[in-house]
Amino acid sequence: MPKPRGFTLIELIVVMAIVALLASIAAPRYFNSLQKSKETALLTSLTTMRDAIDQYAADKGRYPESLQELATARYIRGVPEDPLTTSRETWIELPPPTEMQVTGRVWDVRSGAAGRSADGRLYADW
Description:
This protein is mainly α and 126 residues long. Helices cover 46% and strands 5% of the residues. It has helices spanning 9-60, 67-72; strands spanning 92-94, 108-110. A two-stranded antiparallel ribbon has the order 1-2. The relative contact order is 0.13. The model has no long low-confidence stretch (mean pLDDT 93).
């Protein structure tokens, strides 16, 4: 009599348990690396925009009125998307300190994202 083909219920349960174990190990690492890449992209965007603001101020003798003005003047290609909020509208534009006595509204830029980074710092403090 030929032996029936297929898997037993026990074999299927063991395989599913192994797959679940591997997924539970891999998933947290994936999400941590995803968050780290967003933080790296945020830091790169902030550095690029801050450099563009400084170059604009050095060239024009004043600070820009908005981030869009930097893009219009071609100091940046366009206002980047905040990787944490996935929006171009959430950037916080900081005015120059009053003791500097300069014109313009954008002296620095910060992320509008709530929360803390992996090292414990607030995103708004970057």
